[in-house]
Amino acid sequence: MIRIRKALPSDAGELSRISRESLADHWSEEAFLSHLEGADSIILLAEDSCTAGFICASKEGETLYIESIAVSSEYRRQGTGAQLVSALHRMHPECDTVLDVRTSNSSAISFYEHLGFERLCIRRRMYSSPAEDGITMKMKCLH
Ligand SMILES: CC(C)(COP(=O)(O)OP(=O)(O)OC[C@H]1O[C@@H](n2cnc3c(N)ncnc32)[C@H](O)[C@@H]1OP(=O)(O)O)[C@@H](O)C(=O)NCCC(=O)NCCS
Question: Whose CB among 4, 12, 27, 102 lies 3.0–4.6 Å from 31's, allowing a Cys bridge?
């Protein structure tokens, strides 16, 4: 059974492995360690017998910004990503949640729309390697 917990510095290697396997804009172990040190940074991890996925976010005022989320391919379409977003919301139910996603990432866009995120705007060429537009999406707070 999947359990969600806060990530620890000792998880940085596994987080980086899943990020590298799943994302064009992946984070190194050092990037995860640095994020873990941030006062307004949140990293939640999903695990059963091994690490299944993670969500990284930062809180600015009344807004949570999802910076990265990934689930290992063998754990996808089993509700793990939804559990990670839900656990983040439970930590800060007073916050709206915002994120950016590559326009080509149709599976992630479907995932976010399934969870109730709405498209706010297109941000031209916000990504590099490869260069691509981003879509900003937002979910209003649960209150
Ligand atoms: C996006 C991601 C985190 C979703 O994680 P997940 O654990 O597979 O998602 P869930 O199982 O919680 O999916 C919940 C719902 O979202 C939608 N959804 C999820 N993946 C989808 C896909 N590939 N295609 C269409 N809809 C999808 C479905 O409605 C799904 O419900 P269902 O399985 O009952 O139909 C995962 O696919 C992933 O790690 N992708 C690679 C990394 C990435 O692109 N991250 C986002 C960067 S912005």
Answer: 27
Low-confidence ranges of the chain (pLDDT < 70): 143
Is residue 104 within 6 Å of ligand 1 at its C-beta?
Answer: no
Q: According to DSSP H, which parts of the chain are helical?
A: 12-22, 29-37, 80-91, 106-115
Which residue among 45, 107, 115 has the greatest number of ligand 1 atoms within 8 angstroms of its CB, and so is best to mutate? 107
Tell how far the Cα of 33 is from the centroid of ligand 1, in angstroms: 25
CA distance 29 to 27: 7
pLDDT tens digits, residue range 17-28?
A: 999 999 999 999
CA of 10 from ligand 1 middle (Å) equals 26
Question: Model's pTM, two decimal places?
Answer: 0.97
Supply the pLDDT for residue 141: 87
CB atoms within 10 A of CB 62: 10
Domains of the chain, earliest start first: 3-139 (3.40.630.30)
User: What does the pLDDT read at residue 91?
Assistant: 95
